[in-house]
Amino acid sequence: MVSQGWAGRGWIWVGLYVSFLYISLPFMRPLVLFLYRTLGKDALGLYVNLIMAGAALAIVFWSFKVLEGYGRPLKILLIFLVAALVVYSVETPEERLHFLQYGLLGWLVWRSSAGTSYPFLLSFTIVSLIGGGDEFIQWLLPNRVGDLRDVMFNGGGGLLGIWMGRIVGRP
Q1: DSSP H helical segments within the chain, as ranges?
Q2: What is the pLDDT of residues 104-148, one digit of tens each?
Q3: Burial classification of residue 105, based on how many CB atoms lie within 10 Å of its CB (0-12 exposed, 13-18 middle, 19 or more buried)
Q4: Which of 7, 36, 109, 137 is close enough to 114 for a disulfide, judged by CB 3.0 to 4.6 Å?
């Protein structure tokens, strides 16, 4: 169960996280290009996949240990399987990370929406608007490209994060 104390502080975390996402937009493309040149695209993709798989396994093992019964941990495992299928279909490592960034944002917004009348609708709307803002800013930047497909991809990542929040702890 999410405490009301988290809900108040949670919006601060959401604001800080979104600020980081937006402020880092001009710097991420040069960083990714540097990593491509240094590590190679295939190696970077492998590292991203290993980090994502490690984080997913850690969360699943944590959920079996902390959450009562097997129902919710199995649902969490299902979320990661769905995320793995989606992420596997994405070509570039940075898009995979972007999907996870919005998953984390969805989870943060869900936890912060405790006590609202429609937490799912509120959370999904906020994450979608932030994802749209992200792409709009990229459209304005000379070294980035905003894409409507990415807005939907951001929303999908956020949706999985919200789903995770619903399973782990309901607001």
Answers
A1: 4-39, 41-66, 71-88, 93-112, 119-140, 148-168
A2: 999 999 999 977 889 999 999 999 999 999 989 988 888 777 778
A3: buried
A4: 7
